[in-house]
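Hi F.,

I've been meaning to write this up properly since the lab meeting, where we talked about keeping a consistent format for the predictions we share between groups. The idea is simple: the sequence comes first, exactly as it goes in, then the structure tokens exactly as they come out, then a line or two of notes. No screenshots and no reformatting. I'm using this chain as the first example so we have something concrete to point to.
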Amino acid sequence: MDKIFIHALKTEAIIGIYDWERQVKQTVVVDIEISADVRKAALSDSIGDTLNYRRVAKRVLAFVEASRCQLIETLSEQIAMLILEEFEVAGVRIALSKPGAVRGSKEVGVIVERNREDLAEWRRLNASR
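Output, unedited:
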């Protein structure tokens, strides 16, 4: 499977478990890797035959900026499901990090990989809530 990627998509969001983190926006960096078959686009040379990564980036930025998750695990999962649901791709890998979250480290983060089956399970679990 081919991959379309967006690296180091940076924005600000309310994220964290401490009281001060709920008051001030922090930098969040997202790497997105999407599994997609790009052969048709490669042959046609048309944006209509591929995933428009600009649309993906704009949607993810808007989503992250409006989010208020406590955990980066939660935000990563929600981004993955958003992309799977709205862009109907085969799979996605999200690496989300918070620069400077731990003293002495460059960044901390989490990586999640999800596919269409995971989306179906996520929908099922959320419907039973």
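Notes:
The chain has a mean pLDDT of 94.
The radius of gyration is 16 Å.

If this format works for you, I'll send the rest the same way.

G.
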